[in-house]
Amino acid sequence: MISLPSNPFIVAERYIQLRKVCAPDSWADTVTLFNDMILMPLITLFLLFVGLGDPIVIFTTVVKTYQVWKDYCEYTDLRFQVQRMFFICQAVGGPFIVTNDQTYMPYVFADAIQRTINACQ
After folding, report:
1. What are the structural domain ranges in the chain?
2. Cβ neighbours of residue 45 under 8 Å, at least 6 residues apart?
3. How many of the other CB atoms lie within 10 Å of CB of 104?
């Protein structure tokens, strides 16, 4: 049996928030994300290896890299939860509501999950 999320609307809301950050539409935001996740940690490690690393720069880079990777891992987990909600939505004969904006489709899937949870109780 597939487990249903206990708070599907919270999952959908957080997914939409993180999708704006972790799967940006513009190339400039994508370059910034790549810079924060890959390039700056490599440059910082190189400067640390060479012995030119400033402690404040190293600390801020480590904190920023940790936060970006943490958000990206959470986004990946939420993406799979939303996909699972989509499959459950199709399995129960949904969606029951409609939206014209693809950005808010996770709310449609969350509605189907919430209706399924309420029907089972």
Report:
1. 27-120
2. none
3. 12
